[in-house]
């Protein structure tokens, strides 16, 4: 029951993606993550930055969820 109770927390976010002209003829994907609970907004230019930000939002104590600490340990090998 304790693990199920922890999973009841909800994270409501909006992810907005758009293609933006870069120098020359190349275009880049850009994005924004906005928390609908508190309005905190984060902009990103790479998929890695998006994933790092989303993982940082998740509590590390949830079973089966790798948070940023686990990800850093994986990348440091």
Can you characterise this structure?
With 77 residues, the protein is of the alpha+beta class. The protein has one domain. Helices cover 31% and strands 29% of the residues. It has three helices and three strands; from the N terminus they run αβββαα. Strands 1-2-3 form a three-stranded antiparallel β-sheet, with helices on one face. Strand 1 (13-21) and strand 2 form a beta hairpin. The protein is elongated.
Average pLDDT rating: 76
What helical percentage do the residues reach? Answer: 25-40%
Low-confidence stretches: 69-77
Strand order of the largest sheet: 1-2-3
Please state the oligomeric state of the protein chains shown. Answer: single chain
Alpha-beta classification:
alpha+beta
Q: Report Rg.
A: 16 Å
| Binned strand content | 25-35%
The largest sheet, given as strand count, sense and whether it forms a barrel, is: 3 strands, antiparallel
Q: How far apart are the first and last residues' alpha carbons, in Å?
A: 36 Å
Number of helices, counting only DSSP H or I runs of 4 residues or more: 3
Tell me the number of structural domains: 1
Number of strands: 3
Question: What string, H for helix and E for strand, traces the elements in order?
Answer: HEEEHH
What shape does the CA trace take?
elongated
């Amino acid at each position: 029951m304790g693990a199920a109770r922890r999973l009841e927390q909800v994270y409501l976010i909006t992810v907005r993606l758009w293609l933006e002209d870069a120098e020359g003829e190349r275009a880049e994907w850009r994005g924004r993550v906005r928390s609908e609970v508190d309005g905190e907004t984060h902009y990103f230019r790479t998929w890695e930055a998006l994933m790092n930000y989303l993982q940082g939002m998740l509590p590390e104590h949830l079973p089966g969820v790798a948070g940023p600490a686990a990800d850093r340990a994986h990348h440091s090998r």
